[in-house]
Prior knowledge:
The protein has 154 residues and is an all-alpha fold. Helices cover 66% and strands 3% of the residues.
Amino acid sequence: MGNRFREKKVSDDVKVVEEGLEAPREEAAAENEATVTAAKAPKQRSDGRSAKAARGIGRVLGGDLLADKLVLRQIPLLLLCLFYLLLIIGNRYRIENMSREKVAIEERINYLREQRIQMQKQYQQNVKMSQIADDLKETGVGITAGPPYELSEK
């Protein structure tokens, strides 16, 4: 799909002609090797990225990468990785909700324990009062319904 430019090495049989003069074969071979090595070295762009990296980004954005046979063979593996990733995210979400519920239940349990302790204290106080009232009835002294008052001598 994308354009693929490749520099081909010129064979030693080709003669390079400059301004009507024939150049020696050694000079032509040296020039060819220099152009090939220059083509192999990554060219730096003004933004610091190499031309190879820019070409790779262009392949991804243009869709050429997805049409490559190597990538097409790896699609089942990519789908499996995607499935596992979704499974991990789902489990993490579920566990987080369960931990929130656990904290809420623990707070509720602590609140109910405190309420039980308060009710138990109140019950024990009422039991003591009723036992005292029963003991006083047996002796003939009753419990007043109002506040206590002082007896004074006249």
